[in-house]
Amino acid sequence: MALLLVVLFLFLRLPFFRSLIQRPLVGKRKAHLILWFGLLAVAGTQASAVITAGSALSSAPVLSNVPLAPVQADQAVVTLAGMSVIGGGLVGGLPVGLAVGAIAGMHLLTLGGMAAEINAITMVLTGLLTGWLVQRSGESLLSGRWAFVVAFFVTLLAGGALVTHLHPDDGPVRFLEGTVLPSAIVNALAAAVFMEMLRTVSREVEEVALETERALKLSEFTLSQLQQGLNADTGRAIAEVFMTELKTLAVTITDNKSVLVHVGIGEEEYPPGRLVHTKGSLKALETGKLQVVYRHEPYKHSYLDKILRAAIVIPFSCSGQVIGLLKLYFYRSQDIRPYEIGLAQGLGKLISYQLSLLETEKKSLLLKDAELRMLQAQINPHFLFNSLNAIVSLIRTNPSLARKMMVQLADFMRMNLKMMEMPLVSLEEELRHLRAYIDIVQLRFADRLTIRLEVEPGLNNFRIPPSTLQPLVENSIQHGLKDISEGGSIVLSIARDGNGVQVRVTDNGSGIPESLLNRIARQQLPSQKGNGIGVHNVSQRLTSLLGGESQLVFSNLAEGGCEVRFFLPEPKEEVVNDESDDR
């Protein structure tokens, strides 16, 4: 029996066996559990004793690993398989207990002897009764006390049935006192020990799950605070949660020079701003490695020396540089288990990773903002260059018109500067900006072209990058209508399309060469007029701010001319005004 418990203990240390008792018993897992306990039952029978009717035990338990030879007709096997059958029923319930009992019973039938049939029946009934009692209890794992009661009751019944069948010469009562009752007690104790081992394994797994959940909770909370930046307020919130969850006496968070916050015992002695000075902290800052201090340096305060005797110093870094420490204080060195050290290492890496990630995101946003501002800045000189060229050409031929263009250009640029402060503006503002541009163009090309706006009402809340429409209209004038001396037409249509708005700019010009249609929005193309920045710039800003579905699409019209279109998605609810925080 002791050997069987040792084997069971070794099985419980196997990850495979642990997974069997922790997961729902369905399909292959249930079959594996039946196989394991069935093999143990067979092994228990091989380690059994043989009794001859009318005499005492005739032989010592057979411990061979090979099957027992068939026993004589006047002999019976007193099997130890009952413990394995009971174990299967206690762990797997009725189906497993019944199946293991059947395996043990069939093995006993193959051995024969005067008690073969009654042994086989009692094994099946043992598994059936044990599984049924467990199922009735409603518990996944019985306590050791209940396992003792169940095993004692079942073993006593099985032994009593065997004694009644054998009728030994010494009498059933004497046999019961000499064999069955001690066997029932031993089986019950073994079952209780086995169940307590199972419950210990189960608690270990549950504790691991709880510790994992705790670590995830700490990580999630720490991340939410770090997203606001590491300062005294967020540091205090992190320290308080760490002290509560890890049951530490105190927690300190520092930067690479001084204390940000100290929470817990000794808070008065560690005010914010106090320089980092202990050897463990300085070494962690220097090496970037976790330090475990088992005998903390004296605080020059007797009560602190007696209470804060051990600590874990966790460095955290950003972009490869150590920028601070998280210090967890404990009462004694025995309180710092491998679990605390492992958790501290993991948290240090997690905090460092999150800080580096936040720094990378911040730099990425700054870079994207800088790129967008550079693109927006390119629009201004591009349009200004073209407009000034037009004014220069008018100064000699029509000075009055040139002066009027200068005044309207000044108004346009004033409006343009205000809009360029924002990444997105309302469609209403963008149309107002475009009309100011059209007023300038009409002064010069009044007899040459007409520009018509067809805008569906109720779309003013849609958002668009500033100076998007004006470069497209200008592109039609400069390139699409360059060879048309009169009758030129440009139409801007804006209409709802599904969950957004479709914007189209069409002209009746010469169209675009087929070789350029798929390239014009994706790359900057040189041109004789201007520098080729305008259209490519617009496409880049649309895709950066609104997504790939807003990219410019160019096509030639069957009746002549060109069309450029793009899509504006439904505005997000949080975008409710045109003001910018970047001014």
TrEMBL record:
GO terms for cellular component: plasma membrane. One of its GO terms (molecular function) is phosphorelay sensor kinase activity. The chain crosses the membrane at residues 33-57, 77-103, 109-134, 146-167, 179-198. It is a multi-pass membrane protein. InterPro entries: Bact_2-comp_sensor_kinase, HATPase_C_sf, HATPase_dom, His_kinase_dom, Sig_transdc_His_kin_internal, Sig_transdc_His_kinase_LytS_TM. It holds the Pfam family His_kinase. It comes from the Bacteria. GO terms for biological process: cell wall organization. Keywords: ATP-binding, Cell membrane, Kinase, Membrane, Nucleotide-binding, Transferase, Transmembrane, Transmembrane helix, Two-component regulatory system. It is found in: Cell membrane. PANTHER family: SENSOR HISTIDINE KINASE YPDA. This is Sensor protein lyts. It comes from Heliobacterium modesticaldum (strain ATCC 51547 / Ice1). The lineage of its organism: Bacteria, Bacillati, Bacillota, Clostridia, Eubacteriales.
